[in-house]
Automatic annotation (TrEMBL):
Residues 4-120 form the Sulfatase N-terminal domain. Coiled coil: none annotated. Residues 123-135 have a biased composition (Polar residues). This is Sulfatase N-terminal domain-containing protein. Residues 123-143 are annotated as: Disordered. GO terms for molecular function: arylsulfatase activity. InterPro entries: Alkaline_phosphatase_core_sf (IPR017850), Sulfatase (IPR050738), Sulfatase_N (IPR000917). It comes from Parascedosporium putredinis. It comes from the Eukaryota. Belongs to the sulfatase family. Gene3D superfamilies: Alkaline Phosphatase, subunit A.
Length: 143
């Protein structure tokens, strides 16, 4: 059986009620078509900031378990506050399996385009295919 293709899109700072199927002013015709056929997105799990939310999507776990208990910029500005605290490593840690790794194990080719922002350290060791940018072909902005 052929595996289905799928695409995950993350929009920063977008609430479900901002889009047209839920009464918002942002026109989203494809979401409207889905809603008109009975497909409504009604179960949301998120964090109040983008990096923790992204880590939950990429790991399928709580953002503290994934190592991003706080917004990366806050962690980078106050490293001593977070140093040595489990759940505040500042990158998608190895206690969790990354979605891309699970998909690749199942035979998928994975790619990320756009904003990665699940690591505080932007040194060369944190480039695609290394410690915190796990198992994705990367194009776009990493910060």
């Amino acid at each position: 059986m052929k595996q289905p293709n799928f695409l995950i899109i993350v929009a920063d700072d977008l609430g479900f009620s901002d889009t047209s199927p839920y009464g918002g002013e942002i026109k989203t015709p494809n979401l409207e078509r889905l809603a008109n056929t009975g497909v409504r997105l009604t179960n949301f799990h998120t964090a109040p900031a983008c990096s923790p939310t992204r880590s939950m999507l990429l790991s399928g776990t709580d953002h503290h378990i994934a190592g991003l208990g706080q917004l990366i910029e806050h962690m980078a500005q106050n490293p001593k506050v977070f140093e040595g605290r489990p759940g505040y490593e500042g990158y998608l840690n190895f206690r969790v399996a990354a979605l891309s790794e699970i998909l690749q194990d199942a035979g998928y080719h994975t790619m990320l385009s756009g904003k990665w922002q699940v690591l505080a350290d932007t040194s060369p060791r944190n480039t695609p295919k290394t410690s915190s940018n796990r198992s994705v072909e990367f194009i776009g902005i990493s910060g």
